[in-house]
Write a structure and sequence with these properties.
This is Dolichyl-phosphate-mannose-protein mannosyltransferase. The chain has helices spanning 2-7, 10-27, 36-51, 68-80, 88-108, 115-127, 129-134, 141-161, 164-178, 185-196, 203-232, 246-260, 271-291, 298-319, 327-330, 334-340, 344-350, 355-390, 398-401, 404-411, 427-434, 448-455, 476-482; strands at 240-241, 320-321, 421-424, 440-441, 459-465, 486-491, 494-500. With 501 residues, the chain is mainly α. The protein folds into two domains: 2-390, no CATH class; 403-500. It has a five-stranded mixed β-sheet, covered by helices on one side. The protein has a two-stranded antiparallel sheet with strand order 1-2. Strand 6 and strand 7 (494-500) form a beta hairpin.
Length: 501
């Protein structure tokens, strides 16, 4: 009996192993992908491990990101006795395998059980370009997605039992989500709204449970924000107001959905309509289930989170300025959105009485899904062919690893006089390749006081990477119009200057 219990998840285990192997393939050539965010996480993890501090490579406190993912990397550093960059492929492979396995557990507990549906969804997760992208990099989304799925498991237990231990366990998982990514507040919103909408509980009990969940789940985030404020004066770092209106963000949201569906950019003009159609459809389904007191299911929790997270990204992108709405930002909702848009299909097919119509609907659904899998497989194959030749885009690809300027920085680490400030358009690259700590990023144009302070500096070095072209910060032309820079070294892809008043 016990053996049968474990054997029924053998298909989920196979899918998890396939996901682990996929990450191994993508990281085999150049190692795990490294971006500026990755260097923030890794440098903080190193400082946690070596000094017990939450400082990044530039000597400042970690405020732009919550603390849990760097802490997780520092734990992995202890376990593997090696740097997270070296073992990033293994770490992410295990995380992706865990995500796939938990997804399989969730699907196996749906009200309308279908082994074919489970296999197809697991295959879609394994082959998903969105998932393979984030698990190819050292990004906090890799851990965040897993904590989301664990919250769904825990919160469903609360909806079933309505006990205090189940509520507090769900709140604990939600609290961990919040200190993995600040967007984890969507988990608090999901849980709080679902408690308030739970018609099976008396109103007073709903209010008490909702208040308890809200306080318990936000406590770790509150501590993190207080520490940030005390160390830097800012709770989440400097944030600029958005420059993209809601309508534009909605369009970008829709283009990501088009990409996830494997569609070409020919359908981009209809992207906003697709986004509205999906979100409104999911909201309508939740309202109907709420009125019928049918929110007590894994499917409802999954759908609720997908809607809350999607709306949160649209709103926050309209209020605050960060990178354009893209697949990475929306990736935490990919699995939940995939399930929310498809879980009802097996149940609808099962209700078809006529045998011929039943098999026709079943066959059509499987063919459509197989066509989707075939399409995204070719997208993955093209990406793999590119990255097998050049590496994963970012600081681990050949443009950086074979760069003459990077080689120069690695072999001339002592060319800077101690005590003189070093500025750069990529301070994280100086740390990652040259081991230079304490370098500063050139100021953003938006923050006029920072720009003025920079121009008042009397002596500094400037390390300029020629191919980056970050329009957000002041560039070499801006500086040379105001200051006379002495060029110390000049290579094809970078140069080093010195300014002395």
């Amino acid at each position: 009996m016990q053996a049968t219990r474990y054997l029924k998840h053998i298909d989920t285990l196979v899918a998890a192993i396939a996901g682990f192997y996929a990450i191994h393939l993508f990281s085999a050539y150049s190692g795990i992908g490294i971006s500026p965010d990755s260097i923030m996480y890794v440098s903080t993890a190193r400082n946690i491990h070596e000094h017990g501090s939450l400082l990044t490579f530039n000597g400042g406190p970690l405020v732009f990101f919550p603390v849990f993912y760097p802490a997780f990397l520092s734990i992995s550093l202890i376990i593997f006795q090696a740097d997270p960059v070296a073992y990033g492929g293994l770490i992410n492979g295990l995380l992706f395998a865990a995500v796939i396995f938990v997804s399989g557990l969730l699907i196996s507990r749906f009200k309308a059980k279908s082994i074919i549906y489970k296999w197809l969804i697991l295959a879609a997760i394994v082959l998903s370009p969105a998932m393979l992208e984030i698990y190819s990099f050292l990004w906090s989304e890799t851990l965040f997605v897993l904590t989301i799925l664990l919250f769904i498991l825990a919160f469903k237990q609360y909806l079933q039992k309505h006990s205090w231990p189940a509520l507090l366990l769900a709140a604990l998982v939600a609290a961990i989500c919040c200190i993995t990514r600040y967007a984890g507040i969507t988990i608090i919103a999901t849980g709080g709204l679902m408690i308030l909408a739970d018609g099976t509980l008396p109103f007073r009990k709903r209010m008490l449970h909702g208040l308890t969940f809200g306080i318990a789940s936000s406590c770790l985030l509150a501590v993190n924000l207080i520490v940030n404020s005390l160390s830097s004066g800012l709770a989440t770092g400097t944030r600029e107001p958005s420059i993209t209106p809601f309508s534009e963000n909605l369009h970008y949201f829709g283009t990501v959905l088009c990409d996830w569906l494997g569609l070409t950019n020919v359908v981009y003009p209809f992207a906003s309509g697709l986004a509205v159609f999906i979100l409104v459809g999911l909201i309508a389904g939740l309202v109907i289930n709420s009125l019928k007191n049918r929110l007590n299911s894994y499917e409802s929790v999954i759908t609720f989170f997908a809607v809350v997270y999607g709306l949160f990204i649209l709103i926050i992108a309209t209020v605050s300025r960060f990178e354009r709405v893209n697949s990475r930002l929306l990736s935490p909702m990919f699995i939940t959105l995939l399930i929310a848009c498809t879980y009802w299909v097996p149940n609808v097919i099962r209700k078809i009485k006529k045998r011929g119509a039943y098999w026709l609907a079943s066959g059509a659904s499987v063919i459509i899904m197989c066509g989707y899998l075939y399409n995204i497989y070719h997208i993955d194959r093209q990406r793999y062919d590119d990255e097998f030749e050049y590496g994963i885009p970012g600081y681990s690809d050949d443009d950086w690893n074979k760069s003459a300027f990077v080689t120069f920085l690695k072999t001339h680490r002592n060319i800077f006089k101690p005590g003189v400030t070093i500025y750069s358009d990529a301070d994280e690259a100086l740390y990652f390749f040259g081991g230079i700590t304490g370098a500063k990023l050139l100021p953003h144009r938006f923050f006029k006081a920072d720009v003025a302070k920079f121009y008042s500096e009397k002596h500094y070095y400037l390390v300029w990477f020629k191919k980056l072209g970050n329009a957000e910060i002041i560039n070499i032309k801006d500086i040379e119009q105001k200051k006379h820079l002495t060029k110390l070294y000049d290579l094809e892809d970078g140069a080093i200057y010195e300014y002395r008043q």
